[in-house]
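Sequence in, structure out. First:
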Amino acid sequence: MPDGKEADVRANQRNQPVTGINVLRWELGSELRTLRLAAGKSIADAARCLECSDAKISRMENGQRGAVARDVRDLCKFYGVPAQRRDQLMTLSREAAAADQATVTTIAARYSTYVALESQARTLRTYEATFVPGLLQTSRYSRAVIAQNGGGDLAEEDVAQRIQIRSDRQRRLWGSDEDLLQAHFIIDENVLWRPAGVNPETRAIREEQIDRLIRATMLPHVTLQIIPYEAGFYQGMEGATINLLNLDEGPRTSSTCYLEGMFMELFVRGHGEIATIGAKFAKMSETALSPTDTRKFLMRLARGNYEHWSSARPSGPSERRKVAMS
């Protein structure tokens, strides 16, 4: 991290559009990880230096927990970091701790880290097999998803906070400022049929959400593709949620990947692993409908001219209506 970067980091934290998320922890952790690797030290080596668990070092480097100034000092000494740089990082650790104390949020640490990173990303590639991506959700769809996933245990104020965080994130996609996010979304067709049923409210939520997806296809900085049922099994479908971010770090850029599922939340930072996931995303893009055909698909769905596969009768050739791509 070059001299003067701390001022840029603090500016990014102040201007960050998402309320209640601390990006300074990630900046500090990322730099500690860079210094450790440059010194040729392992996570286990760093843990022995601090007389702590390997998990603590890993969480510090991933921005999932803060690093107190004393730990930063000892690690910098262990890594052979010059005194001036050590003092800068100790100051950054104190600022990150102050930011943590100033914010109150009920969302999970890994997810809050992801939201902070997303606010600084230049580009985003997202695959979703279960839900509409958060950046594309309507307010009513968000409320339904958050309330259900909370198992009914979330207080109304917690639900409202999470909806607000999601709404804040959406400014970079639906806003009019110069810092719009270049985003590429790939969605499995399964996502489009939920919520469904005879309940008028759930039907209205679904119809409103599909209309918003149609509008998203018209945004110049957004690419949206649907993988239809006709594609069958395809590479990458084993991942419930994939988020690939290219981050803006001043003169440098870096990439990270956030994988999410019912029993897993994982940040991937290794170049080889990210390259593998990126290649799978590219394969999924080849499998999916083109952006133009995706818009036609959604418009026919909105008009009721496309039926769910389960409505097809088993006798004779497939009677399921297919989207005309011409």
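Second:
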Amino acid sequence: MWYNVIIMKKKVTKATKNIKNIKSPAFKRVAMKNTTAAADENKTYGFLNDIIFKYVFGSEANKGLLTYLLNALLHLEGPKRLTIDKIMNPFNLAEFTQDKFTLVDVKAKDEAGKRYTIEVQLLSHENFIERAIYYLSKLYTGQLKKNGKFTEIKKTIGISIVDFKLLPEEPAMQNVYRFKNELSMRTLTDSMELQFVELFKFDKDKPKSLRTPLEKWLHILKFGDIYSKEGAKLPKELEAEEGVMEAISVLKKANSNGKMRGIIESREKAEHVIATRMHSAFNNGKNEGKIEGKIEGKIEAAKIMLEIGLSKSEIAVKLGLKETDF
């Protein structure tokens, strides 16, 4: 058994040396994440894995869990609490089998007709905020059917839970954006709302007894993989939060699903390949010594992303290009 460990260690060491040559921080994080994952076949996936997140909170059978999470994120209590009526894009394992890079978010509608789109993201990329605005707008405008009335459009909220530094100038962990008058600061309309929750700003040392429902849920989202391991116990304060124990139970079930684990691992390997090829494409563009080298690198990266099945609109948003550029 000892020789298997030595061989694995050599493979990881070699891969780590290759990663050091990657200059792009975003690509390097993808490569490092997948190299580490390859070395641990018994890895427990947590809620911050986008596929796991969608399985737990985006399955029709689990819409109660999404209800608990959204009430915490939106600070709703008592009669103001919402109830999710329908998952608009329910989890379907087959879609990940056919397309490793399908967009992973959860879209839902509550009993009042309001729409929600929620996602988790571990890695930053260019134009992340523009991308969030784009998908929120699509969900908002998608409500208006042919010959429909504008009065039929319901409030739409987009929530991105990220584990990287997105808004460094904002000290708050949760930031909410709406249409406002810059002079009077009066809200024009609350029909569209965009929220960013930065987990890296979460105070994990705050006494659990003083935490709000939001802080308890964010703790679970960030450290769920630890609590889902065999023998691990939840602190009483977290056990008492409605929905948390059920979410951990569903997380354990997801980790025991061999087919799902295979798809997650396949997706991670594919991300590693893309990160490496895109890094090479960017470098080739820069090494040509042209002013437009970086743009050419992006265009080459876009072509690679087209090859693997991403849509032109999504690629354009990710790379900050026009669809006519590639």
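Remark: Residues 190 and 253 are 38 Å apart (CA to CA).
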